Amino acid sequence: MTHRSDLLQAFDTLLAPERFKDYGPNGLQVEGRVEVRRMVSGVTASRALIEAAIAREADAIFVHHGLFWRGQDGRITGWMKQRLALLLAYDINLFAYHLPLDAHAELGNNAQLGQQLGLRADTRFGEQDLGFLGERADGADFADSEALAVNVRKALGRPVTCVAGASGPIRRIGWCTGGAQSYFEAAIAAGAQAFLTGEISEPQAHYARECGVTFIACGHHATERYGAPAVAAHVAQQLGIEHVFVDIENPA
Predict the structure, then answer these.
(1) Pick from 9, 56, 58, 170: most CB atoms within 10 A?
(2) What is the average pLDDT score of the chain?
C-alpha cells in the first residue's frame, strides 16, 4: 500500500511532465482515496476501463488518454458525467500522462512499440523530440515496404495501411505512436526511408509517393497499448502495490 501523493510523485519523477507542452493536464486528474494498494492501467479512461477497475477493486487508474483536453466543452454531461460519476462514487484516483508517456526513452509508447517491432532507436526528431528513428535491432534490412508491413501486421496482430515509397531495401525507420501523421515530413527530413504511426490523413499518401518514403498507419490504439502497462508496472513494483493492465478492445 502507498499514499496517493507518493504514487503521483513517482509518476512525475519518471515521466517529467513539466518538460512538455501538452494538450491537457498530466498527473492526477481525478482525486480518489488516499491509500492505494491496487492499480489498473489502460490506454484510455473510458467507462469500460473504469468499470473494469471497479470490478477489480482498484484504488487507482493509470492511462495515456485522460478525461480532460484543451478546448473541450467544460460541461459535465453525457459520457463525461457517467465516467466521473463512477470514479467519484468508488473513490478511484485517475492518473493520466499524454506526451510524457509517449516520450519516455525506455518505458514510453514509442520505446515500447519499437521493442514490439524489433526496432532500436538512435535518433529523436520532430516537435518536442517525440519521434523515434532507428533500425532493426538485429542489424538486418527489410527487403521492401511489403516486408516491413508484414512484420508490423504480425507484431501488432491487426491490418495496417501501407503506402509504399521507393522500391528496394529499407534500413532507416521512423515512428511515433498515435495520431502523429503530421510528423511524417519531419521523419523524411531526418532521413527515414519509412515512417510508422497510428493514423493516416489525406496528404500523407501523396508525400509517400512523391518523396519515396513508405508510410504505414498501424492503428492509434494499437500503437499505444504498450507504454501505460510498462510505466504502471515499473512504478507498482517500485512502491510495492498490485497492478494489472486491462486492454479495452478498440479498432482505431
Answers:
(1) 58
(2) 98
C-alpha cell at 176: 511515433
Angle at 141 between CA 162 and CA 216, to 5 degrees: 15
Q: At 122, which amino acid appears?
A: D
User: Does residue 119 contact residue 184 with C-beta atoms inside 8 Å?
Assistant: no
On whether the CB atoms of residues 186 and 124 are closer than 8 A, the answer is no
**Residues 6 or more apart from 75 whose CB is under 8 A from it?**
none
Structural domains of the chain sorted by starting position, each given as residue range(s) with its CATH number in brackets: 2-97+226-245 (3.40.1390.30), 109-223 (3.40.1390.30)
SS3 106: coil
Please name the residue that has the C-alpha cell 526513452. 105
Structure-block grid coordinates of residue 55: 470490478
Q: Is residue 71 very low, low, confident or very high in pLDDT (cuts 50, 70, 90)?
A: very high
Residue pLDDT, tens place only, 38-63: 999 999 999 999 999 999 999 999 99
Using an 8 Å Cβ cutoff, are 32 and 50 in contact? no
